[in-house]
Amino acid sequence: MLEFIQEMIKEKKSSTLREMYYISEGWNAAKFHSQDESNKLAEDLEIVTGCMREDFKLRPEEDGARIMGNITIEETNRKGMKKRINCRDDVGDSGYGIPFNVEKDKIRFIEHDVDFIVAIETGGMFDRLVENGFDERYRALLVHLKGQPARSTRRFLKRANEELGLPVIIFTDGDPWSFRIFASVAYGAIKTAHLSEYLATPTAEYIGITASDILNYDLPTDKLSKQDVAALRSELTDPRFKGQFWKNEIELMLEINKKAEQQALAKYGLDFVTDTYLPEKLSELGVMRR
Questions:
Q1: Which of 32, 186, 232, 272 is exposed most, by the fewest CB atoms within 10 A?
Q2: What is the three-class DSSP state of 205?
Q3: How far apart are CA 84 and CA 184, in angstroms?
């Protein structure tokens, strides 16, 4: 496997973890018995070397997220050419697609005119904010997390936070699984705990949807499932949710037995989230002046 990685680096090629597994089929007695075996070896190599999988030219199956905002980056393309891209003016409505590798040899931050980052769970809400011009009106960088965010997305958020000094705000649905999306960005996921120093953004803050929002904004809801209840109870003992804010919100969600999606804010119209909800929330956090 090391020889294969060395060859990929030399030839400036990459493979997915899935391809890595199938490539080993040609190694006779050295082949892997399952993809889980090859995946774990990739993780072991990260731990032993202190490098990331992307350094080995091993890329995940999932791609990175989309971003929209007034930030200019320099990306080195597959031919080795450097290209400057403004992630608002040089892209279409879908935004700039984050590649699997976002290290400095691939992506450099050139300049920006944004005050904070809003990382959004769902594509529908990302598109709503883009369509409503939230990034321009409030000098924001919008990032679509695509549900549980890919490693490259979390790495991009950490780099932008540390290198550009931009606060990271997480905006998700209001359910236990979305709370865990926040936790993976802020503190890291269990599966990639050995890479938390590269992927986690501990200063990231959460703005909703919360159980309090469900009551305060009288949002349309669904009842919690048995799996939801079990997940919430588990989070009460999860050190990533040890603060009083999380204790109160999780217990309140269990009490009201309700959850809500981001799109529930559309009850008050298509502009409510950008004109009222987010400005109120972001003002409370002190990252935006109304």
A1: 272
A2: strand
A3: 30
Task: Give the H/E segment covering residue 76.
Answer: strand 71-76
- In 3D space, the residue among 204, 203, 213, 142 whose CA is nearest the CA of residue 175 turns out to be 213
Q: How many C-beta neighbours within 10 Å does residue 120 have?
A: 24
Q: pTM for this one?
A: 0.82
Q: Under DSSP, is residue 222 helix (H, G, I), strand (E, B) or coil?
A: strand
Q: Strand ranges (DSSP E) for 62-132?
A: 66-68, 71-76, 82-86, 96-97, 107-112, 116-120
Q: Mean pLDDT per 10-residue run, the chain (290 residues)?
A: 86 79 82 85 84 76 81 89 94 89 90 96 91 94 91 92 96 96 85 68 92 94 96 94 94 97 90 93 82
* Given the residues 22, 198, 206, 217, the one annotated as active site: 22
Q: Is 22 a catalytic residue?
A: yes
Distance of CA 190 to the CA centre of its chain: 15
